[in-house]
Amino acid sequence: MKHLVRLVLAAALLLPAVAAHGNSVGQTVYLPAYSHIYHGIKTRPFLLTVTCSVRNVSPAKRLTITSVDYYDDRGKLVRRFLDEPRELAPLASAEFVIEEGDESGGAGANFLISWQAAAPVQAPVVEAVMIGSAASQGISFLTEGRVIEEAETGIGGR
Question: Which side of the chain, N or C, has fewer Cβ within a 10 Å radius?
């Protein structure tokens, strides 16, 4: 019985380490996005193009993006990018763009991206690149996704 307790405790301690290294059968990722930022007086927004990028970093395994949803700075759903799941081949990527003039998300917009795989796979890189220019002024920056939910089962209930 002592050995079983030790095994369970060891497994409980190792599971967060596995998740930290990125092996997963699915996740929901929160991704900050900025359709505009303010400069000078707060009433002057600097409009930005937002590119949400999901990159399968596995050289051997596929994964499936099940949803990409864009929310405004009040938490209201603005747009669903997928009508059906989208499979990513090994080392493939998918981009979802918010055009520069689209202010519907506000300065505190975000994406929720969910993905799944048939078997444990390295978690994808999920990032947003914001870029904009006006006259001779240009700005670009990057935000990284944060896992907010780990799937218990992958595609097919595995």
Answer: N
What residue ranges in 33-89 does DSSP mark as E strands?
A: 36-38, 45-47, 49-55, 63-71, 77-80, 86-88
State the DSSP H helix or E strand holding residue 15, giving kind and residue range, or none if neither: helix 2-20
DSSP assigned state of 73: T
The tens place of each residue's pLDDT in the chain, 158 residues long, gives 444 334 333 444 344 433 445 699 999 999 999 988 887 776 778 889 999 999 999 999 999 999 999 999 999 999 999 999 999 999 999 999 999 989 899 889 999 999 999 999 999 999 999 999 888 888 899 999 999 999 988 887 76
Which residue(s) pair with 22 in the sheet?
none
- Residue 105 backbone dihedrals phi, psi, to 5 degrees: -85, -25
Give the separation between CA 18 and CA 5, rounded to whole angstroms.
20
C-beta of residue 132 within 8 angstroms of C-beta of residue 98: no
User: CA of 14: how far to CAs of 11, 21, 118, 152, 153, in Å?
Assistant: 5, 11, 22, 16, 18
Q: How far apart are CA 106 and CA 34, in angstroms?
A: 7
